Every structure is written in structure tokens, then in C-alpha cells.
Amino acid sequence: MKEFLEQAIAGIAAGGIYASLALALVLIYRAMGLINFAQGEFAMFTAFICWSLLQGAAELPFAVAVAIAVVVGAVGAFAIERLIVRPFERGSPLAIIIVTLALFQITNSVAGFIWGYSPRSFPSPFPAKPIDVGGILISIQDAAIIGVSLLTLGLLYLLFNRTRLGLAMRAAALYPEVSALLGVRTGLMLGLGWGLATGVGAISGILVAPRILLEPNMMQSVIIYAFAAAVLGGIDSPIGAVVGGLTLGVLLALIGAYLPPLADLRLALSLLLIVVLLVVRPSGLFGQRQASRV
Fold this sequence. Notes:
mainly alpha
């Protein structure tokens, strides 16, 4: 039982990272009805910015470096949406998908050009030594990840439910035509949505970087887990993204601990989960089912 709880807590920590990135995917999907395939690369790029601010002449405090990196990532995503994505908003969905795939490759290549492809260690502000809670060893880093993930989700809840800006962003995403008639600048709200999604995704990139080596391809497996979490919870449901991420994190941790032969297949199992869910329950656990006439 002790080992099970320790693995479950570690899974919740990993699931918090998946949930943050899945939430970023959901924010874009609710705004545009499409998936931003470059979301993971944006998170990776922001993690590199944070790492650069922690090194060399800058050597900023960790919290300051994280705040600057998140803001830079959010502003950069806002600019990308306004300058690159916006001209295709009224075009076919396929055009926007191709644009996000191009952004994926461009962001990855630019990161490789600036920082190179050699893996680097990312410093963690939290000690690696575990703490004993009732006989259960809990990593301080895992506990911090869970805390930061919960804080991020709590702030997003307050933004969307307690502020005029958040309500305007929700209205522009769900009812763009009506919102425009009521004076909401839907285009601006969409750009802010891109910036917010990248800021949330950046947190997941910074959280996962100390657990793995920092390099341009580091988020390509994480984004698949985030996709699986979003599909599991419901691609249009923020609550579903959180539940899906935490559930997937725990399941993958338990598979790694109790089914060693399947440990190396966790990525493939996540892809299989996406396919099965799209066939059996496309709306996910919390997503809205689409009604159709026959």
C-alpha cells in the first residue's frame, strides 16, 4: 500500500504537468475549434528562455526568471496569433492546421539554432531529498509541482469566472458572433487566448524540464500525453483537461511500477488511448456531445 501511494503521488505530479499543457490545448480549441500542434514547442522554447535567464551574466532568481519567461512566451504567442495565424482565421481549418505544424517545426529549429541540440540539465529550486509523511516518502519536487499546478488552475478559474476579461474571453470563444454584436473585440480576445494558453503551457515546460534533460525535442512526448489527457477529459472541457491529466499521470506511473514489460510502451499506449476514445467516446468524460440530425 505504501509503494502504491508513493507511485500515485508521483503520478499526480506528472499528471499536473500533463494537465497544464492539456489545458493550454483546450483553451485554443475552445477559441478556434482546432488544435495548436506547436503548443509543446512553445513550452519548450519558454523553458529555454528561463534557463538562459538563470545562467551567465543574468543569473536571475528562479521566480523572477520564470515570471519573465512566461510573460515573454505569452507576448510572443499573442504576436504570432496577430501576425501569422489571424490572416488564416477565415480560411479553411486545414490551412490553420498546416500553419500550426509549420510553427512547430520553425520553433523547434530556431531553438536548436540558438541553443543547440545537446541535452542540458535544468536546475530545480526544490531539493531532491524526499520527506516522510506518515511513513510515505514524498519527493519535495513532486509536492511543489502539484502545488504549482493547483495554483495555476485556481488562478485560471478566478480569471474566467471572476473577472470581466475572463468572461469576455469565454464569450468570444463560445459565441463569437453574438459577442461581436455586443461590443466584445473577439479578435483581440482570441489573441489573448493564444497568449494565455502559451503562458499556461510554459509553466508545464518549466516544471517538466528538471525531470528530464532540456533540449529542443523534450516536449514531443509530453505533448502526446497532454493530447491524450485532453481527449480523455473532453477536448472542449477545461475541467476535463485537469481530470484527464491527473488520471493519465497516475495510470502511467502505476503501469511503470507494476507492469514493467509495458513501461517502455507508455507513449504508444497513450496514442492508443487517443484512438480508442475518439472511436468510443469522442466527447471525452466531460466534453459536450455534438447533436446531429439523421
